[in-house]
Design brief:
Strand content: 25-35%
Order of helices and strands: EHEEHEEHEEHEEHHHH
Strand order of the largest sheet: 4-5-3-2-6-7-1-8-9
Number of strands: 9
Shape: globular
Distance between the termini: 46 Å
Radius of gyration: 21 Å
Number of helices: 8
Structural class: alpha+beta
């Protein structure tokens, strides 16, 4: 069993749900269920936010040309159905199903085509960030899936691979990334932050300005730096025995 974790960063102006989440940054959407066949996709989403955010997100889901996860920028003429299953003051549960047209594609459909059946999907959306977690039963061709997804997402955003782990029964997860290696996007973010004085005291550049210079959303840059900082901190602590030696002397 393998676990694939990646992030999509969508541009604004083409997906009504993404645009609504950008307008309501405190709101989140996570999948309760997501299933795919060769010709259909259906999912149940749990949405949290204030009353204004929930109303706007519900309206975005019901936009005539919105089909969850479809990567086609123009009207793909799919057939869809959307229903609100539950509603509270702070949450919505929404069911969506759509039938593909000849031009439709999506993250789950690409995963099915490249990685095969038996996939489990978990997602979380906030602002323009869309985190995907896929559990796959075997050694599917991750590289070909990632390449296909990068090609499809080019016109609407970007993709960053966060983690690929192997899980063995009764054992710990083994990550495919070396312990001393950061993903390219995180290394680039760190190099730019250091070069532009982000870690100086006082800071010589704001995060918003650095994000603009790098051409990425501020939330994406913040996430990359946080992940890189966490990796560096845990790696340092794991390799530092100075406190242990002091404790032994005491």
């Amino acid at each position: 069993m393998r676990e694939l974790l990646f992030e999509l960063d969508y541009q604004t102006g083409w997906n009504p749900v993404v645009d609504t989440l950008v307008d309501h940054p405190a709101a989140t959407i996570r999948s309760l269920s997501c299933h795919v066949t060769t010709d259909r996709l259906w999912r149940v989403d749990y949405i949290e936010g204030d009353a204004g955010a929930l109303a706007a997100i519900e309206a975005a889901y019901k936009t005539a040309d919105y089909f969850p996860d479809c990567l086609v920028t123009d009207d793909c003429e799919a057939l869809s159905e959307t229903q609100v299953l539950d509603r509270t003051e702070r949450s919505l549960v929404i069911y969506c199903v759509w039938e593909r047209s000849e031009v439709c594609t999506s993250v789950p459909h690409l995963a099915l085509e490249h990685l095969g059946e038996g996939l489990l999907f978990e997602t979380r959306q906030e602002t323009n960030r869309y985190i995907w977690r896929i559990i796959l039963p075997g050694d599917g061709p991750i590289d070909s899936f990632a390449a296909a997804l990068r090609t499809e997402i080019t016109d609407v955003g970007g993709m960053e691979l966060l983690r690929l782990s192997d899980h063995t029964p009764g054992g710990a997860a083994v990550t495919a990334q070396r312990d001393d290696e950061l993903p390219t996007e995180q290394r680039q973010a760190l190099h730019a932050a250091v070069a532009r004085g982000y870690y100086e005291t006082p800071r010589e550049i704001a995060l918003t300005t650095l994000a603009e210079e790098l051409g990425v959303p501020q939330s994406t840059l913040s996430y990359r730096l946080q992940r890189a900082e966490a990796h560096l901190a845990t790696t340092f602590v794991a390799g530092d025995s100075s406190l242990d030696s002091l404790s032994t002397r005491d």
